[in-house]
Every structure is written in structure tokens, then in C-alpha cells.
From TrEMBL:
PROSITE patterns: TOPO_IA_1, TOPO_IA_2, TOPRIM. The gene is topA. GO terms for molecular function: DNA binding; DNA topoisomerase type I (single strand cut, ATP-independent) activity; zinc ion binding. It comes from Rhizobium aethiopicum. One of its GO terms (biological process) is DNA topological change. SUPFAM superfamilies: Prokaryotic type I DNA topoisomerase, Zinc beta-ribbon. It catalyses: ATP-independent breakage of single-stranded DNA, followed by passage and rejoining. This is DNA topoisomerase 1. Residues 855-870 have a biased composition (Low complexity). Residues 1-117 form the Toprim domain.
Amino acid sequence: MNVVVVESPAKAKTINKYLGSGYKVLASFGHVRDLPAKDGSVLPDQDFEMLWEVDGASAKRMKDIADAVKSSDGLFLATDPDREGEAISWHVLDMLNKKRVLNGKSVKRVVFNAITKKAVLDAMADPRDIDVPLVDAYLARRALDYLVGFNLSPVLWRKLPGARSAGRVQSVALRLVCDRESEIERFISEEYWNISALLKTPRGDEFEARLVSAHGKRLQPRAIGNGEDAGRLKALLEGASYIVDTVEAKPVKRNPGPPFTTSTLQQAASSNLGFSASRTMQIAQKLYEGVDIGGETVGLITYMRTDGVQMAPEAIDAARRAILDQFGERYLPEKARFYSTKAKNAQEAHEAIRPTDFYRSPDRVRKFLDADQIRLYELIWKRGIASQMASAEIERTTAEITADNKGEKAGLRAVGSVIRFDGFIAAYTDQKEDGEQSDDGDEDGRLPEINARETLAKQKINSTQHFTEPPPRYSEASLIKKMEELGIGRPSTYAATLATLRDRDYVTIDKRKLIPQAKGRLVTAFLESFFTKYVEYDFTADLEEKLDRISAGELNWKQVLRDFWKDFFAQIEDTKELRVTNVLDSLNEALAPLVFPKREDGGDPRICQVCGTGNLSLKLGRYGAFVGCSNYPECNYTRQLSSENGGEAEGVALNEPKSLGTDPTTGEELTLRSGRFGPYIQRGDGKEAKRASLPTGWKPEDIDYEKAMALISLPRDIGKHPETGKMISSGIGRYGPFLLHDGSYANLETVEDVFSVGLNRAVTLIAEKANKAPGRGARGTPAALKTLGDHPDGGAITVRDGKYGPYVNWGKVNATLPKGKDPQAITTEEALALITEKAGKAPAGKTARGKAKPKAAAAEAKTTKTAAKPKAAKAKAPAKSKKS
């Protein structure tokens, strides 16, 4: 009997079926060791020795693997076919060696690019040894990311309160987003005019031609800069006669693109389907690991973490047969198409992402997949099959026309195109972002019949005014594309990088655009000022190239670390003498458009609008940065820093308290003010004044006397409970709008309910809450949102929504979902990993089910030292999994 180690329990079950009873397939659940999330886990003074930690859940799994290996004939390490998969295999092997259970047994590494019977059996027949240079590259990346994060982040905490973290790739990606925002803020719009003529042929067909030259000079784009010039040119065309100089019809071929790589899949899924990078990878993971197709678990796509653009020869043959069968002979090119990667620093070559079987068309598997899975599978299938189809044939027609007005001449041009043969477009068309032209045709449309030297009749002259627009904010798709072009990071990490920026509140996403928040812009400005080299695009790309050369066996990984650490450590040491005033002065200049937005009255934006003499500047508080007056405490003017509305700060309109009226009961004035934590209502003055922050969604400009009175008067008495006779009240608390009755709370759905809910509805909500929490002090179990199936040890796994957010439940184990995770999108495998991790953290030597933890597992959970080679997983990544 041989032991096979894979990463996912879903894959373990499927692969065991393929291999038969002579094999026992066990899952590692991703990484089995990690660098502890504390300082001192990588030791530069000891030649970058790494200290590895095994948590309880991983220790239990490693014990199961070790026990199986003891009685086995050999070991096959079959983790994923990428750098992280190689590292997991290395970690497993290293730990088994330390346990001394191998005893000369055969150990082989196998990789399969798809979870199909043929792919698995072929891989098992062609094993190899662990790729040491690939593990070295992993170790170097893990050490670099750790050293940057655990040395640079504390500098941010000390010098820039409110900042949460910095990272080797994360900070450079954030800089891209912030630099684009700065471009937008600096952008000055310019006026320009476009002029065109609606013309008619002798046969009565109309078409439009654009003005391209006048008075013998060619007009460059946006050359007509004002209405006066536009008017003169329009007058010239109004009185002109028109004749066709030349007509040229030119055939053009458009070739298909290659099958998807990780980054192009993420980009296309964002543009075509609206998926985030993380969501795309979650769905692709499931399609790769396999879905139930008529009672058999089948992997539908090849491995989804790849830079490769080429398909295997047998896949190309299968695609060509499918094209012939489904589209016809005309759509099959004479020879197969071969592609080479254009990505900068493309890493280890794997197959492109493609269907495992091209005859398994989207229509044939639709009933077995959920809505998102079929949409992504269809995208992958169409792109894969289109990559081997015939070129699209397009006829592009250009007509050059002369306008003559009493000797004054101008040139016009009409361009049109028509698809003569759709070719690959019959299967797949790309959807572009930010106004880019799609590849499924030509935006100019088709021209009518036009002949050279014939006269045209003028129908109408159009003169339209336009203004240049700033560059668009990045979307996830366009940011991934830019990072890949610059060679920053690697496609397999893009989803995690973007998720980190969102989780740190450095960026938000609005209408699929990435908007840097004030916190993110402060961090970027700080790093650009004091750690310039480490957020430079070229430096980061050069470091990535070195890491790739390590994986190719061309560089020593520890020498790369030594070279990096020498300069980086010196830079860290230099910041110890850095004064906060130096930091603030630098940030004031770097972020001037954000910190000092233009004033409507044209006054100096750096002078306090309240006292008129103080200088405004960034200030650092416990909860982050804000703008304050230099005359504090005599002048207590403050306002928040905000990236909204193109850099204008919140509360700019509240330079002084705005009077809203007088409270009829107390006689005190109600004012709308702006403070460090945002806009608020205040009644009265001094220490006894009552204050109430504006609820989420309420804008200062919408606040009137009635809203202010309602807010400042909270809590609101609704009426006495008909059974207890005690008052029911409503209010807004730390966790949102609520009802209060006899010391018990019930949630309200919206802030507006606080002011409008009646007694009958309030009594009903309180009763519903009481029914969910029977017994003294007991909390009821929320109803299941989704049932995922049974746990391998028995018992149902469900997804529920609790007081602190959605979680997965199995028996007495509750595991919170990662921030931003859609509870409806959680898979059984992800839930199992979360439950296993949670169970491994049970206190006082107990497992989550109350049984004593085995001594071996407890001992394995202790931190271990590895000088030779270490392991990589995110310090706090859920379920110890490397999957995005």
C-alpha cells in the first residue's frame, strides 16, 4: 500500500477512486506549518534561520499521515503543481523525516494539471524528486514578505497611528491606486470640438464623415480647442461642395487570443461577469477539484494558477475535433495554433487554464453547476476553444472626401468595416473596460456603397463640444493587468493582495472601481517619502526577477536575502530618529490636494477658516490622521480626512457650527458640526452639551431641524408593552439600530425604523427575539442559511448568521467566515477547513468535541526550528490554506 498526500479532502476522495485500493490518499488541508505571527520567526543574524509552527489541527493531520506512512510501501507527494504546492510537499517530507517514519521508503513527487483519471494515472507513472530550487524560491519569498511586514509595519504604527500594515507587494499595489488618484486630482480638463458632416450618396444612402484636415493641414486629435475655431470650420463646411477622392477596401484578419492564464481569467471574469479576483479563484478552485457529474466527481478545468498560455498537444487535438463537430470545417484552421507568453517574468510554465474535456460543453454540464460556476466554466470553455479557431475576416473601408468652399478646402474621412467571416468570434468575444473597443467588430459600423470621384450631397454639419476626462480609476481587472505588465507580484497572489487592501480599509470598491481611502493614501505618502526604494515599481519588479531566477536555479536564495536585508535594515534604523513633525510636514506636501482642498471663497486653504490666523496641518490621533488648527486649544477646529468627491474632505462645508434652530424644551441651540470622527449634532455648549453622531448614510447637507431634533432626542419612547407594562424604546447603538425592553435588545433593520416603528411592530420584534433565545440567559441558535452536507465524522455542516456575522457550524464548533466572504458562496471544503482549524484551537488541551488532545498532537503543535528550509502560508490565513 502506498500513501498519497494531496492538499484538498475533496481531491483526496476523487483521486483514491482513480488509484484503487492499493493507495491511501490523505489531505494536508493546505500548508501544515507556518511562520508564527510574531517577531523573531525569521532570524537574519542566524543566516535567515526560520522557526516553523504547527497548530493543533495540522498536527493531527500530520499524525494521521505519519501513522499511514509507517505501514506503507512508499510515499507520493501530490500537492498542487506550483511553487506553493512544492513547498507543502517539502514541509510534509521534512516533518516526516523528523518523525523518523520513512525508514528508507521510496518518496516521490507527482504533479497533475487536472483531476481526471488519465491525468492522475499519467502523473503517477512519471514521478520525480522535489524541485529544490522551486522550494528555495518559496523560502526566499516567504522570508522577504515576513521581514518586510514585521519590520515595516511597526514603523507605521509608531509614526503613523491608524495605519495597519505594509507589505512587499501590497504596498506597491496600493501605490498604483493612489498614484492614479493623484493623477485624477491634478488633471485639468481641456475643451475640444469634433466636427462631422452627414452626407448622402447619389443612390440616397446617408453616412457620416469626420473632419481630418483644413487649409492643407492635418488636424491632430483635439486640435480644435474652442468654439470660435469650431465655428469657422463649420461655416467652411456649410457652404462647401463634396466629392469623393478615394475609396479603399482593405481585408483585415483578427486572430484569437490564447487560453486563459490566472491573471487574464481574473480580468475577463471581472469585465464579463463582474466577479472579484477572489471570487473567481474560489469558483475556479471548485471547478478544478471536481463537481458531481451524474454520480461521478469530475475535474472540469485544468489547474487555475498558471502563467502558461499553451495547451497540451492532446488538448489541442481535442479542441480541433470539437471545433469541427460544433462549428464546422470553415472554422478549423489548417494548422494548430501555438502561443508563447508575453507576461514579464512569467514563472514556472504550466498549461493554460482550459476545460479538461472540450466535448463537455457548457450546455452539457449546466444542470450540474450553480449559476456562478456555469458562467465561469462557459467563459473558460469558450476562450479555450476560440484559441484554436480560424481568424475573423473583416473588410475595412476608408473613403477620403474633399470639401471645397470657393477655394477653401477641408478633408473628411469615413471609415467602416464589416465582418465577412466571424471565425473565432462565433465562440468568444472579449468585453473591454474603460471605453476600450471590443474585439467582436468595429465601432465605425458599415458604410453604404461609395464610389471614387462621385459628388455627395450635404445633409447636416455637426459641431460638438467635448472636454478631456481624467484617467479612470483602476478596477480589479485593470489593476491586475497593470501589475502583470510591470512585473509586480505574481498572478497567483493578486487576489490575496487585493483582498488585503480591502480588509485593511486602504481601498474601497464603488461601481467596480478601486478608490483609495485616506488611510491608504497616508501610508503610501509615508512610504514614498521615507522608504522610496521599496515602493518603486522597478525595484519590486527586479526583486521578482531575482526570485524567479532562484526558482530556475540561477541564484542562491540566501544571498538574495542578505543583499536585500542589508539596505532594508539600515533604512528601518534611520527611521528611529524620525520625528513626527518631520512626518507631518512631508505628508502635508505630498497630500496637499487631499489635506488642503480648494476653498469656494478662493482663500488660502492652509489657513484655518474658524480663527483666521492658525495654520491647518495633519494631526495624528489614536484613531488615525485628521486636520487640525495650529492654534489649538484656543481654536478647536478639526475635520476628517476623506478621499471622497475627488479629494474634498468631509466637513469642508462645516468650517463653523451650523445653527439648525432651538430645542423647544431646553431652549438650547441645535448645531451641526464636524469633528475628528465625522459630522454630528450638538445641543447646547460646554461639557454638558449633548451630542449625537450622524448615522451611516446620513449626509450633512440633508440635515434639517426636524432630523436634528429626532436624532438628539434619542432614545425614543414607543409605548408600554401590553403584557409587562414596561416602556419600549428605540435607539442607535454601537451595533446599529435597536429596540430596548426590560433590559433586552432586538435589532431593527434600518436607521429610519428607529424613528417610525410603531408599538405593534415593536412588540412583534421583541417576541420574535425572545423566541430565539429560550431559557434564562441562553442564546438561541440562528436558523441555517445553507446546509453543506455531512462532516466526515458525522453530523451536518451548516452556514448561519449570528450576532457577529456569518459562520459555519458543526455540532458545538462555530467557525467565523473570513471578512467579505459571501455565506452563500462557501463550499463544503472551505467549511471543513475552517471547522478543522477552529477545532484545533480548543483551549486547555481539549479538542472542540471535549476529548483530550493526544500527546503526540500536542507535542507536534509546538514551534519547531528549521535552518535548512522553511514553509509559507499567510500568518493569519484562514484554514492554513494557500488558496485565495
